[in-house]
Structures are given as C-alpha cells and as structure tokens.
C-alpha cells in the first residue's frame, strides 16, 4: 500500500469511527449537562430497584441460556443422541425468530385470552413479569452459546479427554477437569453475547411488562415532558453494559490459548437408557423455541378474526423492512471497509483503537442510540430529523461491528503480494481492486452484510423512535398490534418476519463454508 | 465472484434510488397534511382515510400517545413537521396551547364553549366520559362503588388495572388534583398502587385484560367497550359503570384538534378540522367509535346516557393543559409513570 493510498483510507476510517461514537458522546454530553433535577430523578431508590431487576434478569438468563446451550451442544456433538444431525441444525434455528416474537407467541399461547384460554385450558397472568421475560429470553439466546460451544467441541482434540480417562478419571471428572477448561473461552464468549443481548433487549421486557432498564428509558421518554431523565437513565444502562464488557476483557485475558490439537472422529458417548429422555429434552427446547411460536402464530392467522391486517398494509411494511435492511446492510459494509482494511494491513495500536471505537457502539442498546439520535437530529441536524437517513444511520452504528467482523476476516485473507503483482503487471488501482481484491473479499463482505440485514429486519427500539411518519415496518406492526392485544394482527407480520429472514440465515449458516479457519463472523447479538 | 460484488452494488444502489424516488413525491403540486394523532389508528384510521379520499389530500399520520406527541411537539418547537394535532384529550392539547394558532370563530362556535379552549386555540370534536369498565362475569353491578376513591379498598387488590401512559387517564388525574387537591390525589395514587394494579399501555388493552380475566375492573373512557362489542360480538363480557356526579372519576372530556402556528399546510389543516365537525365526521364518532358528537344535529349513540346528564367534577377542560406536565411528574414520582 502506498502512502498516497493510505491517507484517504485513514481519513475515512477515522471518520467512520468518529461517527460510530457520536451517539454515545452526545448522550454523555447531554447527561453531563442535564440539570440536577434530572439526576435526582434518576438517583433514587426506584432506579436502584430498576438496576437490581435488570441485573437479576441478566444473571438468570445468562446462567440458564448457558446451561441449555452447553448441554445441547454436548448432546448433539459428542453423544449417540438419536437424530442428532437434524436436531443440531434445528437447535440453531431459533436465531431466526426475533426474541419479541417468541415472547408474543408465549402470550398468544398461554397468556390471558391466548390460545389455551380459547381452547378452555385456561391461561394466566404468570407469563407477564420476570418469569415470562426470562423464559422467552433464554429460548431466544441459548443458540449463541450452543453454536459457539458446538464449534469448539468439534475442534476439540479428543486425545486429552482420552488420556484423562485412561488415567482413571470418571467421564464426568474428565469432562469437568479437561474438556470444560478448554471450552471455557467459547462458553464465556457465548455467555457474554447472551448477557449483552439481555441487557439491551427491549421488545421482550416490554411485551412481558417487566420493568427492566430499557423499558424504563422508553417510558421516561414517553411519559415526561422533560426528556433529560431518559438520557440520564440511558447512561445508567450504558454503564451496566460497560461492566459486562469489562468482564469480557477479563475473561479474554485469562482464556488459555487453544492448543491446535488434531481434529479427528471420536467415538460418541453412549447415553444408554438416557438416549430417549435426552432426545426428548433437546426436542422440547427446539419445540418451545421454534415450533411453538410458528404454530401459535399460524393458529391465530388461520382463526382469521376481523382484526387481520389488510394485505396491502402488510406488504408495504414488508417493503419498508426490506428496504431499510438492505440500505443498512450496504452502508454498514461500506463503512466497515476502511477500518477493516487498516486493521488488516496496518495493524498497530492506533488502528486497533479505531476498531475498538467502532465496536464500542455495538454494546450500546438500541434504545440508547435511538434516544441520542432523536436529540441530536432534532437539535443539530434538523433537515434530517425524522428522515429515513437518521434511521439508517442508527442501524449502521448499531450493527457496524457485525459488518466489521465479516469484512475483516475477508481482508485478512487477501495476500497483498497478489495486489502488488497485479500493479506490477500494469493494472491500475481500480482495475486491481476490481479484478483481484474485490473477488477475494466479496464473500466476507456478503456475510457481514447478511448479518446486518438480519439484525435490521428484527430491530425494534430504534425503529420505534426514529421511523419517519408512515414508515411502518414488520417489527413495528408486531409492536402496534400487540399494544391493542390483537394477536391475529400481530401474527401476520411476525410470521412474515420469520419467513423473510429464514432464507438469509440459511445462506449464512447452512451454506458450506469453504474457509473455516480465520475469524468467523460471530453471531453478534442484536436484540429487538 | 464478480456476481457477488454486483449483488452488493445492487443491494446498495437499488434501495437508494428507490428511497430517492420515494422522497421525491413530496413535491408541492400534490396537497399533503401531516397529522400527529394521539388517537389510536384502530379508531380513527378509517376516518382519516375517508378524509383522504374525499379531499384528495395526502395525509401523513404519526400515531402515538397524546402526551408523548405533545412533548414531541414541544421539543420540536418551530421545526415541528406537524400541521394538526389530533389529541385524545383536552389536557394534551392545552399543554401545547402556545404553539397553536387560533381557530376561526365560525369553526369554534359549532361546539359548546365548555368543550373548547376559552381562547379558541383548540376545540373538542367528540365527547367522552370516564367510566369504570368491569367484567360482567366476575363483578356484580351492585358491588361497584360510586366513587373512584373506593377502589383503594383492599377487596380490589390485584383486581384493577388502568393505562398510565394514556392521556385521558392523565387528564382524569389532573382533574382530581383540581377538584380535591394535590395531597389527596397523591394519597389516592399511593393507595391505589398498594392495591397492585395491572398497568397497561392503553384503553383497548385494559378492556381486553378485563375480557380475558386478567383483571376485574379498569379505569377507562366509555366508548371502548362498544367498539370491542362491535368487533367481538355482543357477548364481550365487559360493561360500563358510571360513577356519581361530581366524582373525579366521572370527568367528561373531549378528543379534539388544534392547528399548529407553524403549519405549512394550514388550509388543508382547516379542511380536516371542518371535516371532523361535518355531519360525516360527527356521524362517524357517534356510530363507529360510540362517542358523543359535539355538533348539534347528530344523534348520540343509542343506549348511552345523554351527555347533558353527565356531571363530572367542577373542572374546566381548559385548565387541564396547564396541569399535564406536573401530573406526569406526580405519576412518575409515585411510581406509576414508569
């Protein structure tokens, strides 16, 4: 790379990183400038209770989702579980279902007035509150742990465990003392994703009427003329998120480097009489997380009460969702390119810092980004206020890290010597890029774009706050219909969300990946 | 591989072009109007669509809670894109009075002066009463109290619900403050909170919660039950109970409109207000949303007590707006806001 090329690249990268940090910086400035009244509103017992509730939810969901994810991964990868191949694919699929759709399905199935009540089986208030929110979030997030742990288990060198066994350790002791420590980084990474997801989740806690911080921020925004308390409360949420990231940094430092052991087929653990109960367990998890939502939603649509939405309205919302997701995906990848290129080609402390800065926004809950952008655009960017541009900007900031992970992995695979060879043979800059670099990085870029596309389709809080007038999306349709307790009206857009996202996930997950090594785009969290 | 790159380029180019076209039809030749509606799309969507058809005006609507929209208009100030604020209650309209332009006398005089701003900046277009909605399956009418203050009784513990984000609820609290004072209101709110009410998002959700057995009674406006009966059939197991005359819980309020001073489409805005007051609009409120028409000549919905026979607390609707902001703070303070 010549010096001539580097300057604009650095400029572009710095610009992107700065833009990505903008919402956070603005919120901090607003929060710091907020009057003492706003702060005293926040610094009271109720906020403490709010924080305690949120932390409690995060702890329970993270623990349960990790347990479920690890158990499923072990059963599917290491045992003679009947139908483990199929179950292995199915167990990852709940990723397609937005978490608030799982919550909606719970309510529509067993909530008051839900399907079980309609069938005379009774339904209850219990789905609302902590229990319902935790259950829905566990089912929505365990796939993160499952995918990462299953991948690690597949890469595991079985000879370690075999050595322990031959030295007289029981199977459980060998797992605990040998296998688990090797898996710990992957499990930890999954657990962090779950914790971040839960912390930033807005859709589930709102539908389940559980007062977590995200919901409180939204309520404060809605219910007070003075919007500064909402900003200050948003900062509390940011602080909690930073805490989770600190834990992550700790874990990452402690994680042992994985020995590049040899992958080889290993005799599956015989479950014996536990085979069928174990299969039943996996089946039950998949059933509740995947089959139940789809079945319940289909049931409501088929009941076809008067409140089914008009076809034209749903189509227009679907169009908006696709448009916004495509724009966000495209711009996110474009924005990721300069940073990824710098980090791949010029790894240094300063380029790492740029990367960190871009990643920082990932930890920002959608509601916080949205709030910051509402303030910012209404005061300083008035021509863009309530425009699609601001909404897309929010998506790009929120999901930039997902684009980065794919892009960076792709760029790392391009040998600069290839480009130099092309230049040496007389090809111009553009031609080199088009003929050599682009084809090599395209799959990674697409992977990044796909992740952003999927996340945008599901995104709820930023869309709610920033959507231009009349710009209904499938996600907001679900939200609006639930607000008037209309399950049938919510079911149509919810099903459509799943149907439109599923092929994209298939592209990402099931399509054989030729290049497995290197940094795989991780299933980054994106809560609704 | 080239195809992949092409895909990416298309991914970016196509929607950008689309979006550009989409925003292009904001052109001046077509008439447009931006409405901030605090009334639910489910209730007034068809009416606004009808107006769109008849007038040829392209109506853009932002739906949200009335108080939230009032706060938004306040924050947006002179830059607000709203031409008309169609509020669910008088309090939210009153809260942004300084930003509203006076309505022509001929428009104002179509409704009784009780139902409009004394200075003519906003006016009611339909009337509603606060009621107790109750489950006809689990509550005997004889067991229902005459006063909203009686719902703090422990026998209602866990059985009641209401929507704090709803503007009509907020105005009811403002009216209570104006009629019995802030201390007693705060006490009532704290006592009600001890009864573990289910807090809902809006009136429809409250009615549905009564119907599906989540709660036994709720504090709502009178018309939702009729609307839901029309939708679900007459066996919708919820009915209205009117509280005693003068009780804060029997406030008679209006849904109304005001035109922003900064409206870029003031003529179209006036057309919408005229339409809402026209026989067509008033008929819609009487027959579709089961509210009281406020313009003479259109009959009230059948089966409802005449609006003249309803006597809420001695509170002027014009006084509600000034109380909204402090009512929201009070609700938040008591722990019913968030």
Q: Treating each run of at least 4 consecutive H or I residues as one helix, how many helices of chain A?
A: 22
Order of helices and strands of chain B: HEHEHEHEHEEHHEHEHEEHHEH
Quickly count the helices of chain B: 12
- Overall outline of chain A: globular
Q: Provide the low-confidence segments of chain A as ranges.
A: 511-524
The radius of gyration over CA of chain A amounts to 24 Å
Biggest sheet of chain B, in brief? Answer: 11 strands, mixed
Radius of gyration of chain B, in angstroms, nearest whole number? 22 Å
Summed up, what is this model?
The complex is a heterodimer of chains A (528) and B (338). Chain A is mainly alpha-helical and 528 residues long.
List the helices and strands and how they pair.
The complex is a heterodimer of chains A (528) and B (338).
Chain A: H1 3-33, H2 36-42, H3 45-78, H4 84-92, H5 99-110, H6 115-118, H7 130-155, H8 158-166, H9 171-200, H10 203-207, H11 213-223, H12 228-254, H13 275-303, H14 311-345, H15 349-360, H16 366-379, H17 388-412, H18 416-424, H19 429-458, H20 461-466, H21 474-483, H22 487-510
Helix pairs in contact in A: 1-12, 1-14, 1-15, 1-16, 2-12, 3-4, 3-7, 3-9, 4-13, 5-7, 5-13, 7-9, 8-9, 9-12, 11-12, 12-16, 13-22, 14-15, 14-17, 14-19, 16-17, 17-19, 18-19, 19-22, 21-22
Chain B: H1 2-24, E1 32-37, H2 41-55, E2 58-63, H3 66-76, E3 84-87, H4 90-95, E4 100-101, H5 105-108, E5 123-135, E6 160-162, H6 167-180, H7 182-194, E7 198-199, H8 203-211, E8 217-221, H9 224-232, E9 238-241, E10 252-260, H10 266-277, H11 279-287, E11 292-293, H12 321-334
Helix pairs in contact in B: 6-7, 6-12
């Amino acid at each position: 790379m010549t010096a001539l090329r580097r300057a604009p690249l650095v400029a572009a990268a710095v610009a992107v990183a700065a833009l990505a940090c903008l919402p956070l910086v603005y919120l901090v400035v607003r929060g710091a400038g907020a009057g003492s009244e706003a702060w005293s509103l926040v610094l009271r017992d109720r906020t403490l209770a709010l924080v305690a509730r949120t932390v409690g939810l995060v702890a329970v969901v993270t623990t349960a989702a990790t347990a479920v994810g690890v158990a499923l991964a072990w059963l599917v990868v290491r045992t003679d579980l009947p139908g483990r191949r199929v179950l292995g694919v199915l167990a990852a699929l709940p990723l397609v279902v937005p978490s608030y759709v799982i919550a909606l399905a719970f309510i529509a199935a067993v909530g008051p007035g839900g399907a079980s009540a309609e069938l005379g089986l009774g339904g209850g208030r219990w789905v609302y509150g902590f229990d319902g929110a935790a259950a829905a979030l566990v089912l929505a997030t365990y796939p993160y742990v499952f995918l990462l742990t299953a991948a690690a288990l597949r890469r595991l060198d079985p000879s370690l465990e075999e050595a322990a066994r031959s030295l007289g350790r029981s199977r459980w002791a060998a797992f605990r003392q040998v296998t688990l420590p090797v898996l710990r980084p992957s499990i930890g990474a999954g657990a962090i994703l779950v914790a971040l997801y839960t912390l930033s989740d807005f859709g589930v806690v709102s539908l389940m009427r559980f007062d977590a911080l995200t919901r409180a921020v939204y309520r404060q925004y809605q219910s007070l003329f003075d919007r500064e308390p909402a900003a200050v409360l948003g900062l509390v949420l940011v602080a909690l998120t930073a805490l989770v990231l600190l834990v992550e940094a700790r874990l990452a430092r402690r994680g042992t480097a994985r020995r590049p052991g040899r992958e080889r087929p290993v005799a599956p653990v015989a479950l014996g009489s536990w085979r069928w109960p174990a299969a039943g367990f996996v089946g039950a998890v998949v059933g509740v997380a995947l089959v139940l939502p789809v079945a319940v939603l289909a049931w409501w649509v088929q009941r076809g009460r008067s409140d089914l939405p008009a076809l034209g309205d749903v189509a227009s919302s679907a169009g908006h969702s696709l448009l916004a997701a495509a724009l966000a995906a495209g711009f996110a990848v474009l924005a990721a390119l300069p940073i990824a290129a710098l980090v791949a080609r010029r790894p240094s402390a300063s380029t790492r810092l740029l990367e960190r800065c871009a990643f920082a926004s990932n930890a920002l809950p959608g509601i916080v980004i949205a709030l910051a952008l509402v303030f910012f655009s209404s005061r300083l960017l008035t021509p863009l206020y309530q425009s699609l541009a601001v909404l897309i900007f929010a998506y790009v900031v929120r999901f930039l890290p997902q684009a980065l992970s794919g892009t960076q992995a792709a760029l790392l695979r391009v040998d600069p010597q290839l480009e130099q060879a092309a230049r040496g043979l007389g090809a111009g800059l553009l031609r080199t890029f088009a003929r050599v670099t682009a084809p090599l990085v395209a799959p990674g870029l697409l992977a990044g774009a796909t992740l952003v596309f999927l996340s945008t389709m599901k995104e709820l809080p930023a869309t709610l706050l920033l959507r231009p007038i009349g710009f209904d999306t499938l996600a907001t349709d679900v939200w609006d219909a639930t607000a008037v307790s209309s399950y049938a009206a919510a079911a149509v857009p919810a099903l459509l969300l799943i149907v439109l996202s599923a092929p994209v996930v298939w592209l990402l997950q099931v399509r054989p990946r030729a290049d497995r090594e290197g940094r795989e785009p991780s299933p980054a969290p994106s809560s609704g | 591989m080239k195809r992949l790159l092409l895909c990416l380029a298309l991914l970016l180019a196509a929607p950008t072009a689309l979006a550009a076209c989409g925003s292009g039809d904001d052109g001046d030749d077509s008439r447009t109007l931006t409405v901030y509606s605090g009334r639910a799309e489910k209730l007034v969507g068809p009416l606004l669509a009808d107006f769109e058809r008849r007038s040829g005006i392209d109506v853009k609507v932002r739906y949200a809670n009335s108080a939230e929209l009032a706060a938004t208009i306040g924050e947006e100030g002179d830059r607000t894109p709203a031409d008309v604020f169609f509020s669910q209650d008088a309090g939210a309209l009153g809260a942004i009075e300084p930003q509203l332009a006076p309505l022509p006398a001929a428009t104002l005089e179509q409704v009784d002066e009780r139902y409009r701003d004394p200075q003519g900046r906003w006016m009611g277009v339909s009337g509603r009463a606060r009621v107790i909605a109750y489950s006809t399956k689990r509550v005997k009418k004889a067991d229902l109290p005459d006063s909203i203050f009686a719902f703090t009784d422990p026998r209602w513990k866990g059985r009641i619900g209401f929507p704090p984000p709803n503007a009509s609820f907020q105005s009811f609290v403002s009216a209570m403050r104006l009629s019995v004072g802030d201390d007693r209101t705060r006490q009532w709110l704290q006592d009600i909170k001890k009864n573990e009410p289910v807090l809902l998002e809006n009136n429809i959700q409250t009615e549905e919660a009564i119907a599906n057995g989540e709660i036994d009674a709720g504090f709502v406006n009178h018309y939702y039950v009729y609307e839901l009966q029309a939708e679900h059939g007459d066996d919708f197991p919820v009915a209205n109970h009117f509280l005693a005359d003068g009780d804060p819980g029997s406030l008679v309020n209006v849904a109304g409109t005001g035109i922003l001073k900064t409206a870029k489409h003031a003529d179209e805005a006036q057309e919408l207000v005229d339409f809402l007051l026209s026989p067509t609009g008033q008929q819609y409120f009487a027959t579709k949303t089961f509210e009281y028409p406020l313009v003479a000549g259109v009959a009230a919905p059948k089966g409802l007590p005449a609006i003249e026979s309803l006597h809420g607390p001695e509170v002027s609707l014009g006084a509600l707006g000034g109380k909204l902001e402090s009512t929201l703070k009070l609700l938040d303070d008591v722990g019913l806001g968030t």
